[in-house]
Specification:
Structural class: alpha+beta
CATH superfamily: ApbE-like domains
Number of helices: 6
Largest sheet: 8 strands, antiparallel
Radius of gyration: 17 Å
Helix content: 25-40%
Number of strands: 11
Distance between the termini: 31 Å
């Protein structure tokens, strides 16, 4: 089911050129220093064709909620999704939104000094100044009132969010938002899914944070469920004031 990305109207950085690129289920919000919409459209089509063709020949890549066997001849994006999801303990499609965002980001890197590639709440970015990623957590009182500050020195990086109450992605838990910061959006997407599956009640937040900190690729974690919030790692939270 499509959910209108209303938060995008509130998150357009005025110093960058912003536009949407949509193809099938891939719904990108892109901000760059120059207009790269045509190029990004081509890259999205390229990666989606690889993913769709691979699913056609290996359905378990799409259906499995657990890691699947390594495939040495798979396309690079598919291979990285399979390998990363195996280290996290989730199915490969748990990484797909972050993977597309990151691969597009890698491709535009040589053409723009800064970029923000957001794919359904999963972000890969490189910036030359501090920016704030606002956390959307549905009906939680923390929703759009908390942001994650990203410093230029820490980019490129991924900031990915899994939610049981926002968007069409599958979550086996009840968290309003599980946000993971990492050097990789592909990894952050998969780990956010894993941790989101663990949070079924407020008392689960501490155990999920402890689980997430055990992965070497994790920079920081934020978990929100209703009125409860927990955070771990090098994650710089800030209050967001709406004018």
């Amino acid at each position: 089911m499509y959910e209108e990305r209303t938060y995008r109207s509130m998150s357009r950085p005025s110093d960058l050129l912003c536009y949407e690129v949509i193809y099938k289920e891939t719904d990108l919000f892109c901000c760059t220093t120059v207009d790269l919409k045509g190029f990004i459209q081509e890259r999205v089509l390229y990666y989606r064709n690889q993913l769709d063709e691979y699913v056609r020949h290996r359905r378990e890549f799409f259906d499995s909620l657990e890691p699947i066997a390594h495939d040495p001849i798979a396309p690079r994006i598919v291979k990285e999704m399979i390998e990363t999801s195996a280290t996290i303990g989730v199915g490969p499609m748990a990484c797909v939104a972050g993977a597309v965002a990151e691969y597009v980001g890698r491709d535009v890197n040589r053409f723009t000094d800064e970029y923000i590639i957001e794919n359904g709440g999963d972000i890969y970015l490189r910036t030359q100044k501090e920016r704030t990623v606002v956390v959307y957590a549905k009906d939680s009182p923390y929703s759009e009132r908390i942001g994650v500050r990203i410093k230029a020195s820490g980019t490129p990086c991924g900031v990915c969010t899994s939610s049981a109450t926002v968007g069409p992605s599958l979550s086996l838990g009840n968290a309003d938002a599980v946000c993971v910061v990492s050097h990789s959006a592909l990894f952050a997407d998969g780990l956010a899914t894993r941790l989101g599956n663990l949070v079924k009640k407020e008392d689960d937040i501490g155990a999920a944070l402890e689980d997430g900190r055990g992965f070497s690729g994790t920079t920081g974690i934020l978990i929100i469920l209703g009125k409860s919030l927990g955070a771990w790692g090098d994650i710089d939270l800030t209050e967001v004031v709406r004018l």
